[in-house]
Amino acid sequence: MSWLDKIIPNAVRSEVKEERRSSVPEGLWKKCVKCEAVLYRPDLERNLNVCPKCQHHMRIGARRRLEIFLDEGDRKEIHVNVEPIDRLKFKDKKRYRDRLSAAQKSTGERDALVAVEGKLFGMPVIAVAFEFNFHGGSMGYAVGEKFTRSAQTALEKNIPLVCFAASGGARMQEALISLMQMAKTSAVLERMKQFSIPYISVMTDPLYGGVSASLALLGDINVAEPDARAGFAGPNIIEQTIRQKLPKGFQRSEFLLEHGAIDMIVPRGELRGKLAGVLSKLTHSAMSPREEERQIDVPVLTETPAVFAALEGELVVADDDLTGDSTLPRSEP
Amino acid sequence: MNPNYLDFEQPIAELEVKIEELQLVGSDNDINIGEEIANLRAKSTRLTEKVYSNLTAWDIVKVARHPMRPYTMDYIPRVFTDFDELHGDRHFGDDNAIVGGLARLDDEPVVVIGQEKGRSVKDKVARNFGMPKPEGYRKALRLMQLAERFSLPVITLIDTPGAYPGIDSEERGISEAIAQNLAVMSRLKTPIICLVIGEGSSGGALGIGVGDHLAMLQYSTYFVISPEGCANIIWKTSERAPQAAEAMGVTSAVLQKLGIVDATIEEPLGGAHRDLDLIASRVKQHLVEQLRQQRELPVETMLENRYARLMSYGND
Prior knowledge:
In chain A, the strands form 2 sheets. In chain A, strands 3-4-5-6-7-8-9 form a 7-stranded mixed sheet, with helices on both faces. A two-stranded antiparallel ribbon of chain A has the order 1-2. The two termini of chain A are 38 Å apart. Chain A has helices at residues 3-7, 10-21, 41-46, 62-69, 96-107, 141-157, 175-194, 209-212, 235-242, 253-258, 268-282, 291-294, 306-312, 315-318, and strands at residues 29-31, 38-40, 76-77, 113-120, 123-130, 161-167, 199-207, 221-224, 264-265. By secondary structure, chain A is an alpha/beta fold. In chain A, helix 6 packs parallel to helix 7 (175-194). Chain B has helices at 10-27, 34-53, 57-64, 72-79, 121-126, 134-149, 167-171, 174-185, 202-206, 227-235, 241-248, 252-257, 276-296, 299-312, and strands spanning 81-85, 98-105, 108-115, 154-160, 192-201, 213-217, 221-223, 263-265. By secondary structure, chain B is α/β, with parallel strands linked by helices. Chains A and B meet through helix 1, helix 6, helix 7, helix 8 and helix 9 of A and helix 7, helix 8, helix 9, helix 10 and helix 11 of B.
């Protein structure tokens, strides 16, 4: 288990594992971790990785996030050259440098934040998204710096900033430099506030620690996806401290809404339209996305093929057997 | 083991016991043992110097958390005069883990805000062992805004095991409370001087730690995650905390090299708790000097410097 798996709260971790285990197999079919429905992958993707049956919002990567949020075309990735720096020459069981290279190789990203300048219903915006698969979306120098530069670009161009945060917190291996990224990102957001440039923070599952206690809670508008977990301290730490079981729904989006931390919960499929509507009002733009444009196409569910449906009941135990190609229909139905 | 001494200080503790015993003998005996006592004292000092010149990062963490370590409430009456404590966040309650109020520093009015762990068991409980909840950070914010309104500089004393990880803390938005302080402190139109006096643990410390100048006491510590927490994640045991402390660089020496900490205030031999008046006078001298320097600058320049410094964190 990597260090990353260990910092993620247990509840979150078990789901990471489950999600990995239950991808049945790396192919056309995927099982929903929540309702265990077997889903045809193209349908799932058309539905923005939200289970069409139970509406569970599966995690998605940074690039996919930005791709489904921004208008097609007119997109430019910005501040690409920001690289992580190992100032402390941190070493535990492995060198941090080696861990970084491994993460870069496996994700194809330089660090855990992707920034794109693009349009939302024709409105220019800067959108940034955390890549949770890169060191748990943790914030070290590179994430803090890229976020800050993106905010500065928003300031210079006088256009809104939207952030999709998913993070385990500050990055341990950069120690106090990571902590100071909290101060840095909060400072640049405060500057945006003074120039009345809108910043919308979208909290996605999971979101904890230093990122939560800085840039993610500072939105002019704070939004969360349904059922996302977000909080300062991970559930394990709280349970250890107070020696009590945590109440059901603790630190979920609904909990955040009830306690006044966020303005609204918006399902993934409605984010584009909802945020465009909010931003157009904040920026006094005439543009108001028409209702039908706000809705994404609801996919027609592909019927689960008979051969697969027969297996469905046994899927929970039969996962491993299903990794071979032979039993699964691979062709387009 | 003598509880007033840390594990690595035990040889010093043994010498001190001998000195004490001799003094008792001396008082009801005619034999002149003054010379012997003086010798032992000199030896004890040399030993302390030797021990303290070779402290590991983990040793320093232990000194920073020493049960006799001076806390905010020890510094306030020795560094400031005329302290009026102010209470409450005006929304929910008053948090005793953060103390704040009006005071005078060398006759100049200031706002002082500090985290307080509490000395006696009862006091520790009342102060939640120095772990602030959202209302603590919001009280601090209120006092900082009051300081800005009345042109009073802000002095913050950092000493916390972290913001409180509990259900109520989350319900009342601990993340937002800290984030808000970071944002507002970055542009508060009055000087902010920050000093880590003991344990600066992560976001809970930073929540009152953004300013124009950041100093640390020589044997204080500042980290993004406690060495025990870090060791637990990497090695699955807090016993590797010494290694984690070393790897993260939790001392002022390392942090000053990284450009995060501006100055280190030297502590009395054997740590701040060995001579409270001495460390308090050094703290006062430092604060007065820093305030004088900040006040020489036009406010706009001070704010530009503060912002530029924030933006530079992590750059080479």
